[in-house]
Task: inverse folding
């Protein structure tokens, strides 16, 4: 609709044919939908980014478990054989 309104002065003046007006309006719709793709898909992109962050955090935590323990490292679970000590 906006594409037709923008081309209307040239059509009325006779410098643009009806077919050209229709083509311009169709091109305007294509460009408008291409420009609004990001805003239309933002929720999906945000969900994907949150999922990727969760997976990355899980992989980081698993890698942290695999490395040798350092004494007095906060957040580590220490296993003591045969005793019930808590630190």
Result:
């Amino acid at each position: 609709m906006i594409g037709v309104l923008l081309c209307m002065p040239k059509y009325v003046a006779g410098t643009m044919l009806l077919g050209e007006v229709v083509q311009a309006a169709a091109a305007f719709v294509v460009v408008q939908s291409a420009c609004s793709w990001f805003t239309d898909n933002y929720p999906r992109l945000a969900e994907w980014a949150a999922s990727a962050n969760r997976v990355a955090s899980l992989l980081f935590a698993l890698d942290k478990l695999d490395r040798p323990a350092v004494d007095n490292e906060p957040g580590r679970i220490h296993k003591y054989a045969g005793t019930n000590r808590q630190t």
